[in-house]
Design goal:
The protein is mainly alpha-helical. Helices cover about 80% and strands about 0% of the residues.
Length: about 170
């Protein structure tokens, strides 16, 4: 039933604004989630690809919706046993996540940081899981280094954020 309602919502937004709008992109992301939950990976790939392309045409490849769609595609590729496509997708978005955290994370509130990190943590853990499953060749060493660098980058970010929060608490008059 959820898919039917989402299909109706997609038709509504398409009739009002055309198929190139953020509402249709988000609906395709949700429809991809529904298909993924039903283990319909080809359908999920189709919906996530539509969402990705829609976000890209409306915004850019650094938009959070685009990055989320590519992350979802990576999981579909993994379930379809396509490790190269999985790693390509993850290698596209991980640097964008790191750049976003470097530029925007310091200005977020503690609650926003917690919510953002909750989503981000899953992506980094999935990347580490997939990257470290690579056969023990030269590429494995490359991915091991990338995973290690990601851990260092995110730990430093979280530590800095925690120190700033602790400092604010200690210097408040409450």
């Amino acid at each position: 039933q959820a898919d039917k309602l989402l299909e109706d919502a997609e038709k509504f937004w398409t009739s009002k604004l055309s198929s190139e709008n953020r509402h249709v992109a988000y609906i395709n992301l949700l429809r991809g989630n529904v298909a993924y939950a039903k283990n319909k990976y080809d359908e999920a790939e189709n919906k996530y690809t539509k969402a990705k392309n829609n976000y890209l045409s409306i915004f850019s490849d650094i938009h959070p919706g685009y990055i989320k769609a590519v992350g979802k595609l990576a999981r579909v590729y993994y379930m379809k046993k396509q490790p190269d496509k999985t790693l390509d997708a993850m290698n596209e978005i991980i640097p964008k996540y790191l750049e976003y955290t470097r530029t925007n994370f310091p200005s977020l509130s503690f609650r926003q940081k917690s919510n953002y990190w909750k989503d981000l943590k899953d992506e980094f853990e999935f990347y580490a899981f997939v990257a470290l499953q690579q056969p023990a060749k030269g590429s494995n060493l490359k991915y091991t280094g990338k995973v290690y660098n990601n851990i260092l980058a995110t730990k430093a970010l979280l530590l800095s954020s925690s120190i700033k929060l602790l400092d604010k608490i200690q210097h408040s008059n409450d």
